[in-house]
Design brief:
single chain; alpha+beta; 7 strands; 27% strand
Length: 184
């Protein structure tokens, strides 16, 4: 003879199993679009990044510049302030623009660009993941328009400081090469 509480325990474990199964099958949407740029020829110009996530918020980071250096040699600190927009945006709009304009490789005309700032786009949209560096002169007019529209969000939206958020570090932590030793 089975005891009545055995059914309750069996039902509880069945319910727990089904709940865990359902939670593990839920697809987490972590799509994002990110633009970053690295060192500029102007030592007072900070490295920065902007990211739009599928949570419909815009995130921004900007390097803290050491303006106390009179030699303009070591203004880059590699330390950043991070911000999150107070308003939401329509992620699907920017997702469509980026897929339409950046899914193919950026046409690189491999010209020597001595004083340009190297930039990068990273995005994960649906199953497509792209990471590509470029100089702004290598973008076609549509790509340039999309990039400018995304960067313009920094000026259009209100932001509040946050502790941190992950940005790709390739552009944000790039360093100038060490100069060759002087031989006298």
């Amino acid at each position: 003879m089975e005891r009545p509480y055995t059914y309750k325990i069996s039902f509880f474990f069945l319910f727990l199993f089904l709940t865990l199964l359902q939670i593990s099958c839920v697809k987490r949407n972590d799509d994002y679009i990110e633009f970053t740029y690295g060192l500029s020829m102007n030592p007072e110009f900070p490295r920065a990044g902007i990211k739009i996530k599928s949570d419909n918020y815009v995130y921004y980071c900007e390097e803290i510049i050491n303006l106390g250096d009179k030699d303009f040699v070591n203004n880059q600190t590699g330390k950043y302030k991070f911000y999150k927009s107070e308003q939401k945006i329509e992620f699907s709009k920017y997702k469509a623009l980026v897929i339409k304009n950046f899914s193919e490789k950026i046409h690189k005309n491999y010209i020597s660009i001595a004083d340009a700032t190297y930039e990068q786009i990273d995005f994960k949209l649906d199953s497509q993941k792209v990471k590509q560096g470029f100089f702004s002169i290598q973008l076609n007019p549509n790509q340039e328009k999309v990039q400018n529209e995304i960067w313009e969000l920094k000026n259009r939206l209100k932001f509040k400081p946050i502790d941190s958020i992950y940005f790709n570090q390739e552009r944000l932590q790039e360093k100038l090469p060490e100069p060759p030793a002087l031989n006298n």
